[in-house]
């Protein structure tokens, strides 16, 4: 599966139960979407499941924005 903004937005909106219309690559999970530590855990899990990948703890710590997810998953 190709990692696109739309695919990442789908995971974000499903996990956080929010409207994704304003999500851009620059959208920050904590500051903009008010994701707490549990939300972040479920987001990482959601990305792993949706894209059939394992995200290392090291990579997970680097994820601050939607664009970071796309970059890390595109490796």
Structural write-up:
GO terms for molecular function: acyl binding; acyl carrier activity. One of its GO terms (biological process) is lipid A biosynthetic process. With 75 residues, the chain is mainly α. It has a single domain (5-73), classed as Non-ribosomal Peptide Synthetase Peptidyl Carrier Protein, Chain A (Orthogonal Bundle), CATH 1.10.1200.10. The chain has 4 helices and no strands. The chain has helices spanning 5-16, 37-51, 57-62, 66-73. Helix 1 (5-16) packs across helix 2.
Which features would summarize this protein structure in a list?
75 residues; 0% strand; ACP-like_sf; fatty acid metabolism; single chain; mainly alpha; fatty acid biosynthesis; lipid biosynthesis; acyl carrier activity
The shape, in one word, is globular
- The total count of strands amounts to 0
CATH topology: Non-ribosomal Peptide Synthetase Peptidyl Carrier Protein, Chain A
Q: How many whole angstroms does the radius of gyration measure?
A: 11 Å
What is the average per-residue confidence, as pLDDT, rounded to a whole number?
96
Query: Low-confidence parts lasting 5 or more residues at pLDDT below 50?
Result: none
Strand and helix order: HHHH
What structural category characterises the helix and strand content? mainly alpha
Measured as a percent range, the helix fraction is 40-55%
Number of helical elements: 4
Give the percentage of residues in beta strands: under 5%
Q: Give the name of the CATH superfamily.
A: ACP-like
CATH domain class name? Mainly Alpha
Largest sheet: none
| Distance separating the two termini | 13 Å
CATH architecture: Orthogonal Bundle
Give the number of domains: 1
